[in-house]
């Protein structure tokens, strides 16, 4: 009998639900939008609704779901399943999601940071499958980080490990949302790309600043030297941060995903060059940087894996 | 019957040897200087000589030593006991110390990076005794780092973890010996302190630059505002780097040792302030920074612990 569990990727706009078997196959998927009611009760209602929809699609009556895993944005106390703080959703502060959802659903629930579960998903079925240890970077509006040690998410003392976007990369650098300055994600993100352009001497600066990352990618490929230079600088900052991670953790395997990772060919050479400058050759020789393989499914699979692999 | 083992702290100038019982008491100590012959055979001879001296002092004939642990500077493949690279001692590159020393002594030998074993020593009998996880910083000519997870040294993939002095803290910063620039230890070290002074507008800059860290400590305490400012800036860079470590690892306990940590009262407030600026309040609340307790004994105890605690 196949064991089934449900993985949920709780975003600020949409929630993705997946019914996942114990081989890591997503059997069914649902998506619901969060809407305007973001209080605890509304979220629990929404999550229960998605779970109910998937449950009704289980044709084999002998297979009850073994549990529900949820990935949530922000600082998550994964041990107790509490969202301590979700920077963009103040209503979710100190949200005991695990307790409330398991009460509503009457099945085991586990809750973790979304970036951690993306890493867990890639570890289970994606680019990290063959690595015992690796660090996952999800590039987008910030840098989502997940650290996998011995094939499991490393949580640190209270579940906050992997906030790698807030490594300091420039002591006197740009002001960050977190209150610090010169955080890695001020450079290696969509906003970071804008910063590269803003501080450049590009003649077509206005046009470049109005472009999406996808458009910037196309412009660079079409020969726009300023767009090209911005991606190279982005790559250099990415490399410097990976060098820091290598030096601190002695971990040599990196998996990079997220939308802007699609510009891979425009930044990865510079990333490799920069990290070679900033770490020992013994480390460089051992370093492997791979692209993520699972896209949006990673979070669902990772969330499900926290239930499935517990068995 | 008490089990005895020997811990060796192999430095570039001196080698410290300690006969350690399984409660972590150093029963006897020896020190030998390295001298001018630094080739593999000479080092093996020297280490064997120190071990022989300690062995002859074991009065209880029924207690043979259970093994010898060695802490060595540089990048150590601890699994295989090979010094891959010791930046200041090129003759020690690719030195299979474990194999050669265990052949010479006919006892089990383990080899690890010196900063890792200082951390292990503090974990066993010092400031880290009550921590399950912590990061040890040894401040001096650079920053020695050791990461303790679940009471054991975390080695990463090949034993290189803990090269925390080479986290990038200023992307365009000072050139570092490692080939990178703006490494953390370019600021948080004796040279870093000099840099703070060099880039300051101190009227008595020449005098300050000629001073030892100890003298700078005294000058600051005696009211020299420039010396005081340098220690504060040193503290701020220390705090920024600890914030990075907190954000990456989610680990909240830090133990700081090394000579310049003696100026504690002059920099620690600034360290705490700066790290509070650069990490989440949920992390700040949980963070504990302690001074190391074992001084020079930490390395010997840590080296011995890699033998004793294996039993």
Please summarize the sheet with the most strands of chain A. Answer: 5 strands, mixed
Please, how many helices of chain A? 10
Distance linking N and C termini of chain A: 14 Å
Radius of gyration of chain A: 20 Å
Oligomer: homodimer
Number of domains of chain A: 2
CATH homology group of the largest domain in chain A: ATPase, nucleotide binding domain
Order of helices and strands of chain A: EEEHEEEHEHEEEHHHHEHHEH
Helix-and-strand structural type of chain A: alpha/beta
- Proportion of residues in helical segments of chain A: 25-40%
CATH fold annotation of the largest domain in chain A: Nucleotidyltransferase, domain 5
Largest interface: A-B, 55 and 55 residues
The low-pLDDT segments of chain A are none
Which range does the strand content of chain A fall in?
A: 15-25%
DSSP E strands of chain A, number:
12
Describe this structure as you would to a colleague.
Two copies of one chain form a homodimer. Chain A folds into two domains: 4-121 and 296-308, Nucleotidyltransferase, domain 5, CATH 3.30.420; 131-291, 2-Layer Sandwich (Nucleotidyltransferase, domain 5), CATH 3.30.420.40. Helices cover 39% and strands 22% of the residues of chain A. Chain A has helices at residues 40-56, 97-105, 114-125, 190-198, 205-210, 213-221, 225-249, 264-278, 281-286, 297-308; strands at residues 4-10, 14-21, 26-33, 65-72, 75-77, 82-85, 109-113, 134-139, 143-149, 152-153, 253-257, 288-291. In chain A, α4 crosses α7 (225-249). In chain A, 54% of the residues are buried. At the A-B interface, α7 and α9 of A face α7 and α9 of B.
